[in-house]
Amino acid sequence: MEERKLSRIVWGARALLSFWTAIPCGGAELLFGGLKKHHVTLPIQSDTWDIRHLLVWIKQNLLQERPELFIQGDSVRPGILVLINDADWELMGELTYKLQNEDSITFISTLHGG
Amino acid sequence: MEWLSLEQKCMKCKECSAVLIIRVGDAFCKACFKEYFVHKFRAMLGKKRLIYPGEKVLLALSGGPASSSMLQQVQEGLSWEAGKKLRFVPGLVHIDEGAVRGQNLKDREKMVAEVELVLKRSGFPYQIIFLEEVFNLPSSVVRWDSKNIPSVADDYKAAVDGFLCRHTQLKNAESGIRTCSTGAGVQAKLAELSIKEPEPTASTRTLRLPSAQSTQALNQLFDSVTSLTAKEELLHTLRSHLLIHTARAQGYSKVMLGDSCTRLAVKFLTNISLGRGAFLAMDTGFSDGRYGDVVLVRPMREYSLKEISAYNEMFGVPTFFSPALNSKPSEKGSIHQLTETFINKLQSDFPSTVSTVFRTSEKLNVAGSVESPDSDSAARCLFCLCPLDTQIEKASAFHATLVSEHLSQKRSPDLPEAAANQCCASSEEERRCCRKPAEGCSSTTSRADERLTLLDLLCYGCRVTTKDLTMLDHLPHYVRSEADCRTRRAAMKKEIQEFLLHNNTDLEDVLKA
Asked: I need a labelling partner for B381 at 20 to 30 A (CA). Which of A84, B310, B340, B424 fits?
């Protein structure tokens, strides 16, 4: 019983993250360990996963250097477009969007040199 | 599902669920977005009436999102049904800038192979050029070519009708010869012919990487530039020269650039900061006729980068990633980056920023004197080919800048001897190591002279950025020889000035002969 409850809380535990956000300086590959696509399994947490949490998690777990090129404040750097399941995140409530299982989150940089 | 509650309907068809917010409040579904995107491209070309049917148009592909999207639109446009079909003849060019972007030879090879695959797949004639080839450019590149301006039919509609007429005649003739072949077959044949024609030169030349020597020369040139801002500008200048040369050499009369409105808004503010305010209309407008015979066109200027990136992602348009110019980027690295960050930050808080800046730029027109046919190349900037904005009256801000610069640099302009002494004194340190004080001294003065004559040939904006170029020796040969040529011509003009009845174009002809 306890376990089922937990697994419901961590809805969206698995997500596909695509980083087209090539960051200047070697690009996404450098920033995200040479990979453009990451299948990630998010750890269980008491709160539901939303994009705000995800960004923090990415910063702590995937970003290898210069996080300010990807994250500024608690959101993504201005100029980086976020698509959730191929749709604009502005339609999904941006940072407050609650992650579902098997969601695909795409980050596209519109900045020069990336 | 929970997020469905957040979902909006498309503002156009009001049926499907929206996937993208284009402007504030305008949400589109995938199908309507595609239609909107495609329509905008066609409308842009249709409205401006600049590209004539049958004209050869060179598409400049950097491989970034905007230019890749442009290629896709052109490809699609050529497959539309008869009434809407694009009727120009496209060709592709990609300039590989790997050398200055800090890529090693292996990465560049890989990158070029990737780009070539996409270019090949498009079915258009293509060419891949290395930035190193700027060292082989002729000096005619930086001349304003008014002689070869194609005689343009006054009436666009008449031109289109004429083209259609010829086209159907051709088709009829073809089908008369081979009655069995269908119209579609003939068209395919025609298309095939037009593709195959320029191939031999293109495909054999592409994959040969430039010599290490020229790469080194290019790197030396860029290393001698002290600021990133000036590097970006230099790269832009060299790239434009290469594009123009390619277009001229292969008979293209238009070059399509993939500047998006986001990029143009950034360029607009950047160029103001760079002192290029006089040329904003040319630098950011839809068409740019500064080279005379080859006109630059920016068909993507109505699209924001958000639209373009989303389109590419949703419809699988291949794009490449090319690293930025600098290896250690920071927001304040160059004026370009700073402006971009500024615009993007403002845009995220005020979503109409880009369009406001962009629409402002649209209201600017090219001043009458700029496009007048009689302004010869001597009165144009050696780098950007804009009409010189430096020949103005004494009571101007520019003149004041010059005076103050003069006063601050040459501490004793009235005493040349003192200056010379100073020069020798400063080279005393050099004397210890190289033991050629006299030579060192004279060479520095001649360098300074060369610098001054070069600066004289530039517009204000280019002067400012060229100040960051420490060694003129590394500049490509065509720039220096053209500079020499222009200086000599100006001197000669001055010499024979008093024997001339009036300053007319005959002089130009005499001097050229």
From this structure: B340
Asked if A98 lies within 8 A of B347 by C-beta distance, the reply is: no
Chain B closest-CA separation from residue A31 CA (Å):
13
Series of mean pLDDT values for 10-residue runs along chain B (513 residues):
57 85 84 90 86 89 89 87 80 89 82 88 90 87 68 65 73 54 46 44 55 87 89 91 91 91 92 89 87 89 90 85 64 85 90 89 69 57 84 77 80 46 44 43 66 85 88 86 87 80 58 61
Residue A35 contacts B where some CB pair is shorter than 8 Å: no
In the stretch 74-93 of chain A, residues with CB closer than 8 A to chain B read 77-79, 81, 83, 86-88, 90-93
- Distance between CA atoms of B162 and B367, rounded to whole angstroms? 33
User: Could you report the predicted ipTM of this complex, rounded to two decimals?
Assistant: 0.76
Residues B441 and B327 in one domain: no
Tell me, yes or no, whether B271 and B415 share the same domain: no
Q: What are the sequence ranges of the domains in chain A?
A: 2-109
* CA B24/CA B301 separation, integer angstroms: 19
Q: Does B429 share its domain with B352?
A: no
Q: pTM of this prediction?
A: 0.79
Give the domain-ending residue among B336, B362, B388. Answer: B362
SS3 B126: strand
**Per the CB < 8 Å rule, is A69 touching B329?**
yes
Of A27, A92, A97, nearest to B321 by CB-CB distance is: A27
Last residue of a domain, one of B327, B362, B397: B362
**Which of B20, B337, B341 faces A88 most closely, judged by CB atoms?**
B20
Whether residue A71 contacts residue A59, with contact meaning beta carbons closer than 8 Å, is answered with yes
Does residue B142 form part of some domain? yes
What is the dotted CATH code of the domain comprising A2-109? 3.10.20.30
User: B383-407 as b/e, with b when 16 or more CB fall inside 10 Å?
Assistant: bbbbbbbbeeeeeeebeeeeeeeee
d(CA A61, nearest CA chain B) in Å: 22
Which residue segment(s) compose the domain that B500 sits in?
Answer: 378-512
Instruction: Let me know if residue B14 belongs to a domain.
Output: no
Number of structural domains (chain B) is 2
Is the distance from CB of A13 to CB of A54 less than 8 angstroms?
A: no
